[in-house]
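does this look right to u?? zinc ion version
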Amino acid sequence: MSATSDSAFIHRLPKVELHLHLEGSIQPDTLREMARRRGRLLEDTEQWIRDRERESFCYPKFTDFLNAFKLLSLLLETPDDYALATTRLIESLYAENVRYAELTLSAGVVLWKKQPLDAIFEAVKGAADEASGRLGVRVVWIFDAIRQFGVDHARAVMLHASRYRDHGVVAFGIGGDEERGPARLFVDVYREARDLGLHVTAHAGEACGPESVRDAIELLGAERIGHGTSAGRDTDTLHLLAARRVPVEVCLTSNLATGTIQRIEDHPLRRFLEAGVPVVLGSDDPGMFATSIEREMLIAAEHFALTRDEIAALAANAIQAAFLPENQRAAQGAQALSPVPNG
Ligand SMILES: [Zn+2]
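got this back:
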C-alpha cells in the first residue's frame, strides 16, 4: 500500500483511543489560547513551547520527559484551563474520526499542585459533555496517580476516582517513574480500587524491565498495560500477556521520543502480535510528541508492514480492550466499526 492510500484508509477507519493524556494532548496553540483567555501570556508558556520545538518534541532521558510533563501541568492554572484543553482535545478526536476515548486525567498532579480536583473535574466533565454532545465523540475518564509520589498519594487519587464513578470515571491507574514507584508498593491500593468497582490499569515496562510488566499484572491485577515495551524482550512476559489476554497499549512515537527505544525498528510491536498479545495503538501525549492516533497507525503500517486487515484488527482490539460493560461494548463496536470502510 502507498502511504497516501494508507492515510486515507486510516482516516476513514472509525477509531477508539485508550491511551491519551489530557494534559499531554495540549497543542502549543491551545496553550497560547489558554494564556490569552486568562488575559496574560505567561513567559513560562512560550518557554515551554520553545523548548519542545528546539528539541523536536523529543526528550534526551525519560526523566526529562517526566519533568516536561510536570512543567506543562503547571501551565494549567484554573478549571477553565482544563476545560479548554478538554474541548480542543475532543475536537481533535472528532477530526480524526475517533468515536470513543478513555482519557487519562493526571489527578495526582492536580492534587500535587494543591488545586481543587473537584472543581477541575467538574469543569472537564462539563466541557466533555458539551463537546461530546456536539460532535458525537463519547469519552470516559481514567484518573492517574504518580508512582514516585507513593502510596498515600495513590490512594487519594483512587478514592477521588471512586467518588466519580457515576460521573464518567471508569478506571484508576499509575504512571511515572517505575523505578522509584515499583508495583509492590501499590498492591493494597489496587485491591481497594477493584473492590470499589474501578477498572485498573498501569503504565509499565516503559523505563523498567519486563519484571515491571509482570508485577503490574500479577501483583496489581492490571487489566491493561500502558507501553509494556520491555516485555518484548522476555518470552515469559509475552506468554503471560497473551495467556491472560492483557492488552498492551503501544505508543510508538512516545517510545522513540522518550528514549524507551532508540529506533522504530527496535519496537517489539511485531513480536507482540506474533505472541498473540492483544495490541492497541495510542498517541499518549500528542501535544508533547507532535503526533496523533492517525499518525501512530500510519507509522505502524509503514514500519511494521501491517496490512489493512491488521490495522483494522488493532482498531477492533481497542473496542475489546475498552473499559465498557459488555452490553455497551457490543453497541460501541457496532457503532465504531460500521460501516467497514473500503477503498
Ligand atoms: Zn501514558
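Residues 19, 21, 175, 203, 226, 284 surround zinc ion (CB under 6 Å). idk if thats expected tbh
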